[in-house]
Amino acid sequence: MKYFNLSTSFVTSWLLGLCAAQVNVPPGFEPGVKWQIDIQHSLDTSAPLVPTDAPVWDLDLYFISRNPDTVAYLREQNPDVFIMCYFNAGAVQESDCDWDVWQRPEFSRLLGNALNGFPDERWVNIKNQTGRDLIKKRITVARELGCDGVDPDNIDGYRVDEDDELPAQNKTGFSLSEQDELTFIRDMAQHAHNLTTTRGFTMLIGQKNAAPLAEALFDELDFAVLEDCKGLNEDPEDDEANFCAQFRRYITATPRAKPVFSIEYPMSLRNPDTDGCNPTGAKESEFSASCDPRPETQGFSTVLKIQGDEEELNGCTQYCGQLGSGVVVTAEDPAKDDNSCTAGTF
Ligand SMILES: *[C@@H]1O[C@H](CO)[C@@H](O)[C@H](O)[C@H]1NC(C)=O
Ligand SMILES: *[C@@H]1O[C@H](CO)[C@@H](O)[C@H](O)[C@H]1NC(C)=O
Ligand SMILES: *[C@@H]1O[C@H](CO)[C@@H](O)[C@H](O)[C@H]1NC(C)=O
């Protein structure tokens, strides 16, 4: 009996080790790595790329499909750049390159209520395997376009469904539970990890927000992307005090420490006169609130970004370091946002 137990646990840890070994992570993809995120517009591939020293870039998957030269533009500056592709995993919107597929009559029941009241963005039934497979196809497209990892947004639809105070039309329409969400994320993660990137590594996948899921997922996913974890713009009544801390599990994971990419939104980074980037960065109180070291955010890769409809997550970024400095503006070409989706099989 004892012998049997030992051998079972031996086989189990051998299998776990084998699974972990299957994820082949590019060198340098580790806590503290510098990054830039711009998912608001297409990059201007004719301008010099700034910042020059960010090994990780988070860009919108569909802007890359519309402007496939973006990949070569980034790799020209740094052949080892890690391109993380942002996509909507929990919902589907009109600007998505595969929107027409979702409009087919046989898929009509997979789309639920409007997200945040925007009628052109609708929750997906992630409990349905057909729905999950259509979303997983987005990860296949990411691989095809040259992405090294994916940043799947809106993986917390279950939280609106579990909120008793919301009227039915503001829920997803599918009564999602936390377990449904975990099943969906694990299905996506397995799919991603089955893919090999053009650079010969495993396609990586991160956790986007959804702090309560971090404990269940940090072992299986490869990084995290968080917004406003320090709560600069939170109602102090909302108890999200542990938001940052829950993602420490990624940083302290063994045998592989995993990066946590964190976004803070100090209001004063926006220049109120131009609606653009304030070249001297956020004012002192907001800069400190965003950047001051805290034990629970040790090792996080933090960027400060502008918040607001047309500017949110655009090329303007301030990096922590020194008050009044560290602001960069990555050049964009918004005219190219409406190009047709030329690259990728939809
Ligand atoms: C999932 O959705 C597909 C497409 O709408 C539908 O044909 C199928 O019956 C659904 N499966 C379940 C279990 O509801
Ligand atoms: C709730 O849903 C309605 C109808 O879709 C929408 O008009 C409203 O803006 C939504 N409210 C919120 C807070 O999302
Ligand atoms: C991943 O690959 C394994 C082994 O080939 C397969 O059994 C599994 O179904 C695949 N999973 C997904 C989600 O594609």
TrEMBL record:
Domain Glycoside-hydrolase family GH114 TIM-barrel: residue ranges: 34-305
Gene3D superfamilies tied to this protein: Aldolase class I
Transmembrane parts of this sequence: none
Protein name: alpha-galactosidase
InterPro entries assigned: Aldolase_TIM, GH, GH114_TIM-barrel
Provenance organism: Schizothecium vesticola
Pfam families hit by this protein: Glyco_hydro_114 (PF03537)
PANTHER family, per the entry: ALPHA-1,4 POLYGALACTOSAMINIDASE, PUTATIVE (AFU_ORTHOLOGUE AFUA_3G07890)-RELATED, ALPHA-GALACTOSIDASE
Region (Disordered): 275-295
Catalytic activity: Hydrolysis of terminal, non-reducing alpha-D-galactose residues in alpha-D-galactosides, including galactose oligosaccharides, galactomannans and galactolipids
